TrEMBL record:
Family: Belongs to the LysR transcriptional regulatory family.
Domain of life: Bacteria
Originating species: Enterobacter sp. (strain 638)
Keywords, in A-Z order: DNA-binding, Transcription, Transcription regulation
InterPro entries for the chain: LysR_HTH_N (IPR000847), LysR_subst-bd (IPR005119), WH-like_DNA-bd_sf (IPR036388), WH_DNA-bd_sf (IPR036390)
GO CC terms of this entry: protein-DNA complex
PANTHER family the UniProt entry points to: SMALL NEUTRAL PROTEASE REGULATORY PROTEIN, TRANSCRIPTIONAL DUAL REGULATOR HCAR-RELATED
Protein name in UniProt: Transcriptional regulator, LysR family
Keyword Isomerase found: no
Signal peptide: none
Amino acid sequence: MELRYLRYFVAVARERHFTKAAKALGISQPPLSQQIKRLEDEVGTPLFRRLTRGVELTEAGEAFYEDACKILALSDAALEKARGIARGLNGSLSIGITSSDAFHPKIFALIRKYQKQNMAVRVYQVEANMSSLTTMLAEGELDIAFVRLPCESSKAFEVKVLDREQMMVALHRNHPLAESGEVALEQLRDTPVVLFPQEIAPCLYDSVYGCCERAGIDMQNMLQSSQLSSSISMVAAGCGFAMVPESMAAISHPNVTYHALTSPEIYTDIALCWRRFERSHTVKRFISTMNEE
């Protein structure tokens, strides 16, 4: 059964008149009558009673009318959904975020703006370390991911920087330098360093590790946290000092103070990654939203 038969039938049922229905459909009346007759032959029973001044639905026609309206509504919705996905206006978007990125306000402001502009798109967020995110992105399990640069594995993707952050020093409030506004790494030679795992951000880890080594900090006594955020908890417990991105200073703890790093200055970029030659219009619309910012 063709959908056009249902559209013709519904038009006649609503107008209760072949000529009026034909005018509404933009066709002539004889072909419309022929199509309705073919539909009735296919159904196996009359759907209309022909009257002197129009038509009325038979009992079978009444039942058929309800279902025909539902089928047409579903068909129109499916068509609009497919067109919307093709234009990036609906569908879904999976976004990967590292645990350290989760504290950066620009990321969630951007996601919120995108959601407001694309209400029909379902947005999913996945939090994982850098290695897992880039693997998931490469294998198609994620559409886009926010990562921290420098990152060697990001070279396999298209990358656009969202923001640059300075690394800061987190100290216990009882540390002799806790009242200082700025701190140099050389001043922390007698304090153990708490370092995040290398797989969270390999290149950033190497950069921080190298700077600590050059500053004369004893890396043999280095402590490792499970995440960047947990390094702050270890500082609060008196384990040593940690280096964290500036946005993570939003984690307020009564036993922790944050300080700008004067020597050396270390920066980390937050960037959006997506697969090269990406064809998804949903992804392209997110990138466009980011470009607006």
